[in-house]
Design brief:
Elements (H helix, E strand, L loop, with lengths): L8 H23 L6 H8 L6 H4 L3 H25 L5 H16 L4 H6 L6 H13 L1 H10 L5 H20 L4 H15 L3
Helix pairs in contact: 1-2, 1-4, 4-5, 4-7, 5-8, 5-9, 5-10, 8-9, 9-10
InterPro entries: Homeodomain-like_sf, HTH-type_TetR-like_transc_reg, HTH_TetR
Organism: Agromyces aurantiacus
Keywords: DNA-binding
Length: about 190
Amino acid sequence: MPKITAPTVAEHRAAQRAALVRAAGAILVAEGLAGVSPRAVTERAGLARSSFYDYFGTKDDLLVAIAIDAITEWDAEIEEALANAEAGAPRLRALVEATMAMTADGRHGIAGALRDADLHPSRYEDLMQMHDALLRPVVAVLGECGVREPERAAVLVQGTLAAGMQLVTHGADHRAVAEDVYRLLVDGVLA
């Protein structure tokens, strides 16, 4: 029986799984989907190859786990940025600025790398449900700003944010892009 490196077996398993997800995420960003294999992931995590299958039945399961972790972290950071801003337009500015800063820091790299993943339909649906949760803060902010039909407007705002993120990913200054996106939203959505 292998020696555990945590106070409990459950904590050990959670740490092992997290190590695999971190290793796979790093490979995904550095090498793309083709670089993510059970062998490469376990080697990078410093685990036996067979341990991959103790935590993930398929590569799709691992890719979805990477995405869920990234989306969860992204959502928590957006929530933190919003918590420190006044309701209404200042909170919209905080949302835009945080989104562009996080993109500049490379935290959107995993989403870009996963865009081309050919996931099993059931796993893709799991991923889309998590991604849809990212609209929640946008809907809330738009509601605070008095936007009619904030759910519908949130989809348009998400598209504008995505365009800004693409600019940042391609080298544009995230602060300038954040200002442009904010102005576009104030003039177009909040007007």
